[in-house]
Write a structure and sequence with these properties.
single chain; alpha/beta; 9-stranded mixed beta sheet; two-stranded antiparallel ribbon; 6 helices; globular; Riboflavin_Biosynth_HTPR; 5-amino-6-(5-phosphoribosylamino)uracil reductase activity; RibDG_C; Deaminase; DHFR-like_dom_sf
C-alpha cells in the first residue's frame, strides 16, 4: 500500500520559510526560524553533533517525521544550497529525488542517501520517489516553489507547519501563488510547544 505524500516545514509568523537569497541561508534570520530544531536530541544524533539535547514533543516530531519518510523530493534550488552545507553524510539516509532540468548521474553519499536527478517533471519525480519509498511516505522537502507545484497539482495528502515566533518581513512565502480555488484543508492537529506551534492539515480537492 502506497504511503502519503507530505511536506513539513518551519515558517515565520508572517508566512515565510526562507530568505530570498541563497547567500542568506544559515544567516541569523534563518537560524532564528529553525531555533526550535537545533537543540533537539534527535537532530543532534542525526547530524552526529554529539550526545545530549532536549527531549520532548519537538524532539518527537522530528523523529516521527524522519521515521515516516521513505524517500524525499526536492527542487534544484534546495539541492544546490544543501550540496554546499550538508555534511558528507547527508541527513536524509534515504533516497532523494531532485527535480531539475539538468542531466546528472546519481550522487551517493555515506549513510544511505542517494540523490537521483529527474528532468521530466514533478510527476515523474514523485513516481520514482514512491517506488523508492515502498510503503512509507514521500516527503516533498522543498524549497517553496517545489512544494507549491506539488500542492497546486493536487499531489499533496498532508502537511505540517512549525510556526516559529519570528518575523521575516520578506523572503520566500510558503503559499505565494497557491491555487486556493482548488485546495481545501482539514485540520488534523495543533500542538503548541515552548519553541514553536505545530499545525497539521489534510489536503483535499475543493
Amino acid at each position: 500500500m502506497a504511503g502519503k505524500v507530505f511536506f513539513s516545514v518551519s515558517m515565520s509568523l508572517d508566512g515565510f520559510i526562507a530568505p530570498d537569497s541563497l547567500g542568506e541561508l544559515m544567516g541569523p534570520q534563518w537560524m532564528e526560524l529553525q531555533a526550535w530544531v537545533f537543540p533537539q536530541r534527535f537532530f543532534r544524533e542525526n547530524l552526529k553533533f554529539g550526545e545530549g539535547g532536549e527531549e520532548g514533543r519537538d524532539n518527537d516530531i522530528l523523529r516521527e517525521t524522519f521515521e515516516r519518510t521513505g524517500a524525499s523530493v526536492m527542487g534544484k534550488r534546495m539541492f544546490d544550497a544543501g550540496e554546499q552545507m550538508w555534511p558528507e553524510e547527508a541527513p536524509f539516509h534515504t533516497p532523494v529525488v531532485v527535480v531539475t532540468h539538468e542531466k546528472r548521474d546519481p550522487w551517493e553519499r555515506p549513510g544511505g542517501t542517494t540523490f537521483t536527478f529527474v528532468n521530466d517533471g514533478i510527476k515523474a519525480a514523485l513516481d520514482q520517489a514512491r517506488e523508492a519509498a515502498d510503503d512509507r511516505d514521500v516527503r516533498i522537502a522543498g524549497g517553496g516553489e517545489t512544494i507549491l507545484q506539488y500542492l497546486n497539482a493536487g499531489l499533496i495528502d498532508e502537511f505540517s507547519v512549525a510556526v516559529s515566533p519570528v518575523l521575516f518581513g520578506a523572503g520566500v512565502r510558503l503559499f505565494e501563488g497557491v491555487d486556493a480555488a482548488r485546495v481545501a484543508l482539514k485540520p488534523v492537529r495543533s500542538e503548541p510547544s515552548p519553541r514553536a506551534t505545530h499545525l497539521t492539515y489534510a489536503v483535499h480537492p475543493r
